[in-house]
Design a protein that fits this description.
Blueprint (H helix, E strand, L loop, with lengths): L1 E5 L3 H11 L4 E5 L3 H8 L10 H11 L2 E4 L2 H6 L3 E4 L14 H13 L4 E5 L7 H12 L6 E5 L9 H6 L4 E4 L3 H11 L9 E4 L1 H32 L3 H9 L20 H14 L5 H13 L2 H7 L8 E5 L14 H11 L3 E5 L4 H7 L3 E4 L2 H5 L4 E4 L11 H7 L4 E4 L6 H6 L3 E3 L4
Parallel strand pairs: 1-2, 1-4, 2-3, 4-5, 5-6, 7-8, 9-10, 9-12, 10-11, 12-13, 13-14
Helix pairs in contact: 1-3, 5-6, 9-11, 9-12, 11-12
The protein binds uridine-5'-diphosphate-xylopyranose (UDX).
The site of uridine-5'-diphosphate-xylopyranose has 19 residues, from helix 9.
């Protein structure tokens, strides 16, 4: 099929490359000329395991193209995916400016039947808005359909998630659009990973509800972790016991320093404002958000209980919001480092891939490539991102290099008994 992808961020690049790799002709369009030029020259701006190789293969075959000519991008394709950014605006709502701009262009330049697919994370009712804007901008009346096809890819596993999605949700009231979208995705679907056809508004809510449910599980465990600490229980054991219940499942039950990233924080906030817009209670999700914000400070509170932070030097392992990505958007590490600096501490930090991004967001932080060099002569160590690289380091060497054997393990990656036997003052989350 001939597809156009509007927006070349995470979702746009992975979706475009994924579909090109299935044999479709894909045009990626973006208003950012510099970005399009470097993408057309083989330079990919994001770190995502497995993506660069696929992108280069399909660029070289000519199945994947990058242009800024919106008229061409609209006219050359049957299906146009809107994959632009929907950041949080000052009212904590999803900002739909970019979505509306793309809808205007589609209306203005379409000259044949089109399927317009909302793949960006957009609040319920946005498909109707897109339909209205396209119609208002048409030169003459031409049939088209708007479909909601939310994306569920995770950073760090995006290519795998495109190739093996748990489900493909297609929200549409049009038989024609349903058939075309089904044939486009047929090769991705499996019996246990179906294509789910549903109404547009249900599809729009499925996206926010899924992210909010995952965020709720995390805030649930983070709040419960305090009870474990106050009673001598172990939150990891509690999570294991809960997760063995098939109705609960074991994933996304890890207590830690809170969730971050470009999705959960913004989607929970956007869901709260949507609920209020439709006169619905939002107190559960407000609690999820509040618990998460508070959780980011838990490691600072723990450190304060064992160390005078003023004029101390603290080592931070991990800045990205999770492993396998260089993304630091809404990363707990940003708030943790800011709080420690406000309390008068100096910061040494390392991260396998996120240092360049961190340098743009953090001041007065000394960055290191090597975890051991990071902790040399530091008064304490805080683990913030559970990179594999930190899991099997030589903890005897760590003890020698640190001025004080204090470890605050914000992701519970170490065994408390093992570290305490080595003479560390060890604090995890919920155990
Ligand atoms: C998420 C959704 O998983 C994905 O389906 C959606 O499309 C986009 O948002 P992503 O933001 O890449 O993906 O990260 P995810 O792997 O979901 O982790 C989100 C945050 O939750 C991270 O900060 C992670 O550290 C945290 N987390 C995750 C926990 O604190 N505990 C857990 O058990 C799992």
């Amino acid at each position: 099929m001939k597809l156009t992808i509007a927006g070349t961020g995470y979702v746009g690049l992975v979706t475009g490359t994924g579909f090109a790799n299935l044999g479709n002709d894909v045009i990626c369009f973006d208003i950012d000329r510099a970005k399009i030029d470097s993408l057309a020259d083989g330079v990919i701006p994001i770190y995502e395991p497995g993506l660069e190789e696929l992108y280069k293969q399909n660029l070289n075959t000519g199945r994947l193209k990058f242009i800024t000519d919106v008229k061409k991008a609209v006219r050359e394709s049957e299906i146009i995916f809107i994959c632009v950014n929907t950041p949080t605006n000052e009212h904590k709502e999803a900002d739909l400016t970019a979505v509306k701009e793309v809808a205007k262009s589609i209306g203005k330049y379409m000259d044949d039947y089109k399927i317009v697919v909302n793949k960006s994370t957009v609040p319920v009712g946005t498909a109707d808005l897109v339909k209205k804007i396209v119609e208002e901008n048409q030169q003459k009346k031409i049939e088209f359909d708007v479909v909601s096809n939310p994306e569920f890819l995770r950073e760090g596993a995006a290519v795998k998630d495109f190739e093996n999605p748990d489900r493909i949700v297609i929200g549409t009231e049009s038989k024609k659009a349903e058939e075309m979208m089904t044939s486009l995705y047929r090769s991705r679907a499996r019996t246990d990973r179906p294509i789910m056809i549903t109404g547009i508004r249900s599809a729009e809510i499925i996206k926010y509800a899924s992210n909010a449910m995952l965020a709720t599980r995390i805030s649930f465990m983070n709040q419960l972790s305090y009870l474990c600490e106050n009673t001598g229980a172990n939150i990891k054991e509690v999570a294991r016991g809960m997760g063995l219940d098939g109705r609960i499942g074991s994933r996304f039950l890890q207590a830690g320093v809170g969730y971050g990233g470009s999705c959960f924080p913004k989607d929970v906030k956007a869901l709260i404002s949507t609920l209020k817009q439709f006169d619905c209670d939002a107190d559960l999700f407000e609690a999820v958000n509040r618990i998460n914000e508070k959780q980011k400070s838990v490691v600072v509170k723990k450190l304060k209980s064992v160390l005078e932070i003023k004029d101390s030097t603290i080592a931070v392992w991990g800045i990205s919001f999770k492993p396998k990505t260089d993304d630091i958007r809404e990363a707990p590490a940003l708030k943790i480092i800011e709080e420690l600096q406000n309390m008068g501490a100096k910061i040494h930090a390392c991260d396998p891939v996120a240092i360049e991004n961190a340098k743009k967001a953090l001041n007065h932080v000394k960055f290191f490539e090597n975890p051991y060099e990071t902790i040399r002569d530091c008064d304490a160590l805080i683990v913030v991102t559970e990179w594999n690289e930190f899991r099997n380091l030589d903890m005897r060497a760590v003890k020698i290099l640190l001025k004080n054997p204090i470890i605050i393990d914000g992701r519970n990656i170490y065994d408390p008994k093992e570290l305490r036997d080595l003479g560390f003052k060890y604090m995890g989350i919920g155990r």
